[in-house]
Each structure stands twice: as structure tokens, then as C-alpha cells.
Amino acid sequence: MDNTVRLVKPEAMIFDMDGTLFQTETLLLPAHNKLFDILREEGHYEGETPDEELVLSCLGMLLPDIWKKVIPDGTPEAHARANELLLQLELEGLENEEAVLYPKVKETLEELHRRGVRLFVASNGLEQYVKGIAEARGIMPLFEGVYSAGEHGTATKVDLVRLLLDTHGVKTAWMVGDRSSDVEAGKGNGQTVIGCRYAGFGGTEELKGSDVIIDAFEQLLTLYDQAKEA
Fold first, then answer.
1. pLDDT score of 97 more than 80
2. Are 147 and 40 in contact (CB under 8 A)?
3. Contact at 8 Å (CB) between 223 and 215?
């Protein structure tokens, strides 16, 4: 854990989903090959299935941007069908116990909730996907709000987090995430950013600008306990 900054205890914590709370590869990779097999069968895609690492490198992006990178020559119809199939396959995959949260996520969230921290999710994913994970893994009751770009139609995560803060009257929050979009969302709204390094999806520059970087989710409790009162 890199912590050279003295933090202030927040009123709330806002979490990214993929690569922060949820080990996305445990759900995405089993669906990956199925998705492209179906796209080929339906005539929406030709050629080899894109490399898994390419797909994982896109996590945190809005879905339209993911398909522009993964299926750059795809038609709008192909991209729309990929959206439908990905959601369907991932929701089916949540029934598999191998699709998991990161270690100590549930326990840490429960402890933060007991300490009176208001908890939220802000994700660039689809509404059914983001809420489906929270429901399937038993953490939904811990959150005051679960926000997704898919539900609210926001163009950036900065906009999504601003909507969340305004709607719930949150003044001070820690934005917790693993991608540059999370750093931008926190800093763009004048909040503290806790960068998560344990997922390993992004490059070294992804978390530049974070106030603190953690290597395990449960380190949030230590940071919270060491933070000074507002």
C-alpha cells in the first residue's frame, strides 16, 4: 500500500465494480469464446476470436468504446448484438460459483457499513450486469445506491459520479477503483481517489493521480482507521 498522504475520513465510499469489487475475468473469459462463436454463426463476425487480453484491457470502458476496440470493423448491428449476448452470457455465468468477488470484499464492505460509511457503486457497465453481480454475490443490501452508465446514460464516469453525489447529497467521498476513468471521476468531482492495483488489468499509468494505492481490498479498513476526522 502506497500511503504518503494523510486522508480525511469520508462520508461515503464509491466503488467501481469490475476489477475493484468483482474479479471480472472469472465471468468474462468463460463467456468470451461463446459470444464470438454465436456472432460468427449469426453472420455478425468473421475471423478469429479476439485475444482475451485485448478484452480484459478494455474493462472500465463504456460498452460502445469496448466494441470499437475489440470489433473495430463491426457494423452497428454487430455491436448491438454483442451487447445483448454479453449481458445474457454474463447473467447466466453468475449462477456459476467460480465467478467471484475479490478476497475480503464482502467482509470489508460489511465492516465499513457497520462503521457508518455510506456505500455506493458507480460503474460504466450495463444496469442488469452491475446490479446482477451485487445481488448474486450478496452485497446489494450494503449499498445505498448502485449507479451504472447503462441505466443513467452518462457519457463519462465523471458525469455518473456527479449525478450520484448530487442525488444523495454526498459532500465527501473516496472514489475506489482500478482504472484511469475512476481517477478522473474522483478528481473531476473534487474527491479523494483510492487506486486499486491488485486486478492488474491496466498499465502503470492507469492509477496516476490517485491519492493512495492499495494492493488488497481490505487495506481500506486500515486507511479509514488512520484517516483523520473531518
1. yes
2. no
3. no
